[in-house]
# Entry
Amino acid sequence: MSRYDIALFDLDGTISKSADGIKYCLMKTLDKMEKPHPDLSDYSKYIGPPLFSTFQNLCGLNEEEAQQAVEIYVKLYDIDGLKRNELFEGIDDVLKKLKENGVKLAICSSKHEAIATEVVKLLGVYDYFDKVCGSTIDGSRKEKEELIPYALNKLCAKDSDKVAMIGDTKFDCRGALHCCVDFIGVTYGYGTLKDMKDAGGKMFAHTPQELHKYLL
# Structure
């Protein structure tokens, strides 16, 4: 039996090992714009936040430049970044068990929705998900506080449904708590345990296999 009626999964750092592709496309985007590279050694600074925010806050671009950077990045990612994704070992079994128990599943990611869909297909887990929910190209619907209600609406959630948001960053945690749904943090991704705890997280899985004890 599942403890939840609906499970929302972050993508990068929760379902997919995506750091190499994201870092590569960030650097190539900045090269095309003739902008300097910031320090990209700490994945938590740019995997989790919306892409538009990363270009503004981490890369120091103004609003117009950040929007241009997002458009360049999206094209680069579709060509070079997409194929650099790998599935975290064991996460497919978690998804399979949840699906067998009648849980509605959705990707809930700040990645652009069309790209998120392609990543999930590439990883071979698309059929487990009822919906793939992400941000738009114009930068709207990029925060988890917006994405979680959007995903629940897409899933036709009822007020009585028990919902969990599974993710690896403080942004996932803050969004879940803001939307009054349970948060389950995973520590095998790119965020930090401290940041998730500081944001109010209480439940943590150190491997995909450990998710079973919280979800099933």
About this structure: The CA atoms of residues 200 and 215 lie 19 Å apart. The chain has a mean pLDDT of 94. The first strand starts at residue 6 and ends at 9. The chain has nine helices and eight strands.
